[in-house]
Amino acid sequence: MNYQIKDIGLADEGAKKVEWAYREMPVLDILRKKYKNSKPFAGKKIAACLHVTTETANLITTFRDAGAQVYLCASNPLSTSDEVAAYLAREGIFVFAQRGEDSKSYWDNIRRCIESEPDLTIDDGADLTVTLHKEYPRLADKVVGGCEETTTGVHRIEALNKEKLLKFPFIAVNNAMTKHFFDNRYGTGQSTLDGIIRATNILFAGKRVVVAGYGWCGKGVSMRAKGMGARVIVTEVEPVRALEAIMDGFDVMPMDEAAKIGDIFITVTGNCNVIRFDHILKMKDGAILANSGHFNVEIEVNKMEEQKVSKRRIRHELDEYTFKDGKKVFLVGEGRLVNLAAAEGHPSSVMDMSFANQFLSSLYLLNNKIEIGVYPVPIEIDREIARLKIESMGMSIDTLSEEQEKYMKSW
């Protein structure tokens, strides 16, 4: 089959949503127009494991217009927009994704994309990359290169490389300045709170919000929660980041202490069991738990399932857990990525830069012979995307004069 989706009849609705998102993606629009005629990806297959959202649709159709044959699957069982998947299927994209798909379907869809024998891969969390290396080593040997979108995925690919198991070069798109400065900080910051509010309809003002992790995503979440009137507490394991959080005006303490006083808990670390069940036992009745890290391992949900007396779905993407002592806690989006499980992901304007990085980095991999390893986005690509974004916003910046350039290069 060319696609595995919920309902092709949803395509019209998806088309309107994709069109709306595209209005906020001027850099991708520039790239689409620039490469539509030359088609640099002609004859190439791309396997992409991404959140199937309106923004992703615009990236995928940009690749399509540049000549690529694209195979798309979801990078999270709860992140797919069925309307968008239907639109892409109608547009001729090989798309295998359905919101709420079970574990077997999720992994089968990843394998379908791998079995297309891709020339390039684009990943979000490295599930496709790891499956390709473990189960399809022969096909991995033929891949020209890959791009990774997330911090979690970059960590996994770097671990593969460290063990000398990586079979083709990767560009860590997540680490581009025009990605983590904006997507992680402003995108995650806004969309995480958006997901929690949609699921709970709570007021953030006056609440104690505990943010686990003060990387770029944690900075964004903390900044936005503070801006909405919350009293923010940060938990960290890295002393420099913890110090930065203090200097930014936040309280910093271990999770053991924060658990006793927090109202809302948000994990953004990329690690497992950041909120353990023994932390949950210390929380006040009515505490709300949400995860904005890539995988659903940051909150010890399995222990919550084992120890619960009862569980019920009380609102859309909000589950109430009751424990033996009568305490109730509320879990948003099953502990999965909250901004996509309970909302629509990042705003299009920040994904514009992230996906422009994906497009140009893929083109760079195709046009350059690179040894196996994990590489940053070339600085010239990062700066060009920033320049185009500034231009699209109707603004401009200064340039150095010959005298200034000479001065800066002189000892």
From TrEMBL:
Pfam families: AdoHcyase, AdoHcyase_NAD. This is Adenosylhomocysteinase. Belongs to the adenosylhomocysteinase family. Pathway: Amino-acid biosynthesis; L-homocysteine biosynthesis; L-homocysteine from S-adenosyl-L-homocysteine: step 1/1. It is found in: Cytoplasm. Gene3D superfamilies: Adenosylhomocysteinase-like, NAD(P)-binding Rossmann-like Domain. Its cofactor is NAD(+). GO terms for cellular component: cytosol. The lineage of its organism: Bacteria, Pseudomonadati, Thermodesulfobiota, Thermodesulfobiia, Thermodesulfobiales. It comes from the Bacteria. Its main location: cytoplasm.
